[in-house]
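Notes from hallway chat w/ T.B., transcribed later so I don't forget. T.B. wanted the structure written out for a chain they're using in a teaching module, and asked if we could keep both sequence and structure tokens in one place. Agreed to drop them here.
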Amino acid sequence: MAYGSEITTPFVWAKDRDSKTGGVTSTQKVKPIRQKEEPDLWCCGVCNHPITETRKAISVAGNHSHRFMNRAGFLFEIGCFGQAPGCDHQGVPEEDYSWFPGHTWRFALCAGCHTHLGWRFDGEGTGFWGLILERLVQRLGDA
């Protein structure tokens, strides 16, 4: 299904209720309800380049999202993703100040505009992307 499309549910039947007794008085046709699809893509908030998908969200240390403060005193809320094909990583793997013990980190940049979107974490046999949630936007993906 294309971006921006909506799903229309079929007509449903509902019961009228008597306002005094609360009992059922009749059956009538109700107008259709329109529901939007849930956002599927996570995109760069600067250039809208697709970064990852909702289905690639993972739990690390028991949670998908985490709040951390870096050594400069900036607070970040990150979401963890197993894959982020729209990101590049930059820098030498660093062990110091890692928020996840046993993992090194590198900067994660948008492959479209090179905005800093978070970090790539790598451990022995594991790796994931910790992306700054406020720097991403969600949108419907192409199905």
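Follow-up for T.B.: Residues 41-139 form a domain with the Metal Binding Protein, Guanine Nucleotide Exchange Factor; Chain A fold (CATH 2.170.150.20). Might be a good example for the class.
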